């Protein structure tokens, strides 16, 4: 299976990452990717960039080293009601928004608590992807998550770093098998992300592709096998990333 888009990468603006935008784009070109998404951590995480970082994305090139670029954010779910750490005025200008649970921002609750937080975040009209929902330290009702993904059009991420090197996550393979089985049952697409924090990890999907192959997971349910398919699978529809399908939101975002 050929993956055309890496949807989840971090630059040195997230100070626990180690490469620049240009370095990530060059790595994407070397890997044969057609599109790269820059998704630095939102300000709720302790070493993340200021809001101005996300407000100034317009100065960056839309194509670097022959690779189409999208610029967005990995949001933090800040409480058990799905609060997100970026104001709507900034969220609406992002090309792509991932919402993830990070224990440094929110202490995990019960399975019911965590599921409620994820579902609320998925109902924020700017959230496109749920990032690494595979961490067993944040137990979740995967059937509820998959059903909500089908209802909202939010993509669930299969995170390569979770399988490759994220020793601080728990039971990721078992949880991904559960989630992918349900996605196949309900015909819900997923997206593969490298979660690269250094250039050599950009476009590295080896671990997740091996898992999909072992499960005989259908390629038609993988959203980022082409740029065109990825755009079709996003909730937003725009050639320049400025538009978004809006719906009533049950999540809240941090005000300016």
UniProtKB/TrEMBL annotation:
Coiled coil: none annotated. InterPro entries: PHP_dom, PHP_phosphatase, Pol/His_phosphatase_N, Pol/histidinol_Pase-like. GO terms for molecular function: phosphoric ester hydrolase activity; zinc ion binding. The keyword Hydrolase applies. This is Hydrolase. The keyword Flavoprotein does not apply. It comes from the Bacteria. It comes from Anoxynatronum buryatiense. Residues 5-79 form the Polymerase/histidinol phosphatase N-terminal domain. It holds the Pfam family PHP. Keywords: Hydrolase. One of its GO terms (cellular component) is cytosol.
